[in-house]
Write a structure and sequence with these properties.
Layout (H helix, E strand, L loop, with lengths): L1 H19 L2 H22 L10 H23 L1 H13 L6 H15 L1 H13 L1 H7 L17 H4 L16 H37 L4 H38 L6 H10 L8 H6 L7 E3 L2 E3 L2 H10 L3 H6 L10
Antiparallel strand pairs: 1-2
């Protein structure tokens, strides 16, 4: 039990550590995971068919298919994706301007492309997939001293050194070096282009932000804390509601010690929450202010209007969201 508790506390600490860090660190962890995946794939799984007509498709698939899979997973795991889906379902995007919608999509796609771009760049820098895909398109006449009479079928064998005809073994290093040069050149160009794009996006983001650097950092910390507390409280609330209904059915409820403490401590304050209230705190949110005071989230906005007994004003507010999003 002591070992279990220690592992649980360490996992909890790790979870809180990563939740509390900046998006750049999170993206860095994704990139490192992609590097490990790419390395493992090239060592254990990559195997060029060395066959004309197949090399190209295999090489392109080795670069493109994992990148596409990483992109789709990245979009699926992004909370903003489902905020946007909820916004479309609940409010038909009527409060979202074109600029705001573009900002939301940019935020989703920007985080989703980290792993695909990392995978593509690593594939190009290592050169295995590119060499496999483009070997059969290499023109033998451009290789100094290459004997005549050889065609694409022979060139397609070059990614597999052991399959190259004996009389052509001396040209293997030159062709392999040439193809890797092309692959790495494209890879470094992608690195330079991506770096420039990230720099321009970050400059534009900070220039268009209505917040100062300190307030923007505070907003980031607020969102992280609100998310953690909301999910933790929601879990306890759901547990209390479940315990209440299970008790009503069986006449008792079997709870662990810590669960019993939560139920006893908060049962009097917990009550069912109607769908309307859930919908009010669900969906896309861009930075807003009310009477000069910041509203950092939908929950913050809902609480502000509730304290004023003006929830109807919350629902009737038709201002278009065209402000800054992070």
């Amino acid at each position: 039990m002591a070992a279990y508790a220690l592992v649980r506390e360490n996992l909890k600490f790790g979870s809180l550590f990563f939740k509390s860090k900046d998006v750049m660190i999170f993206n860095g962890m994704i990139a490192l995971g992609t590097v490990a995946s790419q390395t493992a794939y090239n060592v254990f799984a990559f195997d060029c068919p060395c066959s004309p007509g197949r090399n190209y498709y295999y090489g392109i698939a080795a670069i493109g298919a994992p990148a596409l899979a990483f992109f789709i997973v990245g979009v699926m795991l992004n909370k903003r994706t489902w905020d946007l889906v909820s916004e479309c379902r609940l409010r038909k995007l009527r409060k979202l301007s074109t600029a705001a919608a573009f900002a939301v999509l940019g935020s989703i796609l920007g985080r989703a492309v980290v792993a695909p771009i990392t995978w593509t760049i690593l594939s190009l820098l290592q050169g295995l997939a590119y060499t496999c895909a483009l070997s059969e398109f290499t023109d033998p006449s451009t290789v100094k001293g290459f004997p005549p009479g050889y065609n694409t079928e022979d060139m397609a064998m070059f990614p597999c050194k052991e399959s190259v005809p004996t009389e052509l073994q001396g040209f293997w290093a030159e062709i392999d070096r040439r193809l890797k040069y092309e692959s790495q050149l494209i890879g470094w160009l992608v690195v330079a282009g991506t770096s420039l794009m990230v720099f321009l996006v970050m400059c534009t983001r900070h220039c268009c932000s209505p917040l100062g650097y300190q307030q923007e950092e505070y907003w980031s910390k607020y969102r992280a804390n609100e998310k953690t507390l909301f999910h933790r409280t929601a879990a306890v609330h759901a547990q209390i509601m479940a315990a209440k209904y299970v008790r009503s059915f069986f006449g008792f409820v079997a709870l662990e010690k810590d669960e019993k403490e939560h139920v006893v401590e908060h049962e009097a304050a917990a009550s069912p929450i109607c769908s309307t209230e859930w919908n009010r705190v669900t969906g896309v949110y861009l930075y807003r202010e009310k009477n000069g005071l910041p509203l950092y989230s939908r929950l913050n906005k809902w609480a502000t209007y509730s304290e004023e007994n003006n929830v109807e004003g919350f629902d009737k507010e038709m201002d278009v969201y065209d402000s800054f999003i992070t």
